[in-house]
Amino acid sequence: MHLLHMAFQLTYLAVSSNFGSIFTVFICCAAMILFIRQFRLHEFELAVTSVVEVKQLAAEQFLAKVNLPFSLEVGTLDSSGLDSQHLTLYSTSFFPCLFVVCREMSADKLKVLLNEPWQKFIEIFTTEEKLLSNIEIYAKEDIHLSKPFLIQSPISQWPRLTYAFVTFHIRTDVERIGDEEPAAIITIIHIPDRYCNAPATTLCQYLKFKCGRVLNLKPLYSQEKNYSTSEDDSSRRFLKEGNDNCIICWNLPPTHVLLPCRHACLCANCFKRVENCPICRSRVLSFFVM
Asked: Residue limits of the RING-type domain (predicted)?
């Protein structure tokens, strides 16, 4: 009987010690979790400030569609001559027009010309008296598709203070169009020189309406242009596979143009999940649907 009592006492002590060990481990784990949480809160706690961060949603822009009556592509630049160089321009006109090229035009003079009323603007190019220097008419009342023009330009020896080329496509049948229809396109072209060796390219274009209103035409960055200059590996792989769909899901075609970066790279579903442009990482302030 005494031995049985001793065995019962030992069994009770063994069970009690196991429960005590489990309880001790549980208390230690809880204390460690509280300690780690308190440490992380103190480590990443933001400083007290009166600035309140407000999330700004991108606003949708509603843009009107405009049919451009002309287009211009910059071709090759021939710099073989010692005293001159020639630039090939490919002009397309769907309406009778004047195609005029002005060399070495100052920015101030171009700004004044863009803001002129339509009647005074057209008189500068139709009058026999040359109101602007270095103006030459290359086509008149001609409908053409990708017609090449060889333009001669002197090689500048001084830092350029003017635009190398300013081309004008001007409709000659403006009496048939309304005041809110485009009547002229002005294109500013850069050519390389000793101070800026960037290749010949279009700097900007302006669309002038018959009512005198002027719009600055800004190109949208297509998928091919975006990915050819991107440093992101996924973008390179995207271009290599020849996929021109949304840059995120690769499934749906892009429908949203992000502003101000003008990257057309997202579908409607993926656009709802981003705040920054996935290509240039700039903040999306507004957008419009293609």
From this structure: 246-281
For the purposes of burial, counting CB atoms within 10 Å of the CB of 55, is it exposed (0-12), middle (13-18) or buried (19 or more)? exposed
The dihedrals phi and psi of 225, each to the nearest 5 degrees, come to -70, -40
Condensed to tens digits (0 to 9), the pLDDT of residues 176-206 reads 888 788 889 999 998 887 777 788 888 889 9
* CA dist., res. 105 & res. 132, Å (int): 9
- From residue 21, give the alpha-carbon distance in Å to each of 13, 16, 25: 12, 9, 6
Among candidates 199, 242, 200, which has minimal Cα distance to 224?
Answer: 242
Mean pLDDT of 150-173: 78
Q: What is the pLDDT of residue 172?
A: 87
58 closest CA partner among 281, 210, 258: 258
**Is residue 90 classed exposed, middle or buried when 0-12, 13-18 and 19+ CB atoms within 10 A define those classes?**
middle
CA angle (278, 281, 287) in 5-degree steps: 70
pTM, entire model? 0.66
| Multiple choice CATH, 223-289, 3.40.50.720, 3.40.630.30, 3.30.40.10, 3.30.160.20 | 3.30.40.10
Tell me what the mean pLDDT of segment 122-143 comes to: 79
Residue carrying the six token digits 């010692």: 82
Each residue's pLDDT tens digit, 76-113: 888 765 567 888 899 999 999 889 898 888 888 888 88
- Confirm if 107 and 163 have CB atoms less than 8 A apart: yes
